[in-house]
């Protein structure tokens, strides 16, 4: 079975205010990249299970690394501060996504909704933004708490998983990663200690 074709250019609906992926160049490129990644209706079951698991539960891995840094390396205040700031980043990101109201792949009928996600706007990816923010703002602390080195790879893997599961286009994740990393770099490490 082949990957689904994108809807026609005039197929706008309330769930898809930007119309089909062809309506904007970046969505056409997104869909082409998604097809190259094998996203769609023919995703291998093992890869799909891995993607769904990561997309839903990577936050627990992040929490484990941060709890380890707090308890074993005495960085409790820094971890709490970074989580409070991450909460503010999450709120801002959700507001931006609501404002942009960019449709998600499953909302356009390009792939199944493997995560049971609502059809609200998906750009930027809040998961990618928050995880990249945490990775960047705790980066200066990673030499003291090596478990924090795993946050950046977890942000990338979670972004991949959310694309594979049909919750986001690649550009949603890339924008979220860039936004989160940029905001995280603005937080001086000494403010967390």
Indicate the topology.
Layout: H1 25-36, H2 45-73, H3 76-100, H4 126-138, H5 151-164, H6 170-185, H7 189-192
Helix pairs in contact: 2-3, 2-5, 3-4, 4-5, 4-6, 5-6
CATH architecture: Up-down Bundle
Remind me, CATH topology?
Vanadium-containing Chloroperoxidase, domain 1
**Low-confidence spans: pLDDT under 50, at least 5 residues?**
1-23
Number of strands: 0
Gross morphology is: globular
Q: In the residues, how many domains can be counted?
A: 1
Structure in words:
With 193 residues, the chain is an all-alpha fold. The chain has a single domain, classed as Vanadium-containing Chloroperoxidase, domain 1 (Up-down Bundle). The protein is built from seven helices and no strands.
Keywords:
disordered N terminus; 193 residues; Vanadium-containing Chloroperoxidase, domain 1; mainly alpha
């Amino acid at each position: 079975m082949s990957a689904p074709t994108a809807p026609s250019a005039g197929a706008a609906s309330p769930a898809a205010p930007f119309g089909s992926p062809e309506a904007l160049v970046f969505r056409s490129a997104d869909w082409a990249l998604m097809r190259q990644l094998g996203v769609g209706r023919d995703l291998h079951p093992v890869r799909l299970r891995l993607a769904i698991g990561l997309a839903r539960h990577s936050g627990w891995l992040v929490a484990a690394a941060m709890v380890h840094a707090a308890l074993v390396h005495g960085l409790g205040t820094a971890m709490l501060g970074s989580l409070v700031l991450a909460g503010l980043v999450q709120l801002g990101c959700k507001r931006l996504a609501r404002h942009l109201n960019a449709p998600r792949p499953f909302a356009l009928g390009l792939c199944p909704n493997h995560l049971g996600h609502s059809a609200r706007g998906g750009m930027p990816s809040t998961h990618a933004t928050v995880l990249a923010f945490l990775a960047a703002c705790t980066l200066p602390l990673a030499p003291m708490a090596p478990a924090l080195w795993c946050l950046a790879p977890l942000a990338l893997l979670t972004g991949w998983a959310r694309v594979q599961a049909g919750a986001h286009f690649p550009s949603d994740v890339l924008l979220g990663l860039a936004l989160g990393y940029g905001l995280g770099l603005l937080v001086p490490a000494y403010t967390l200690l």
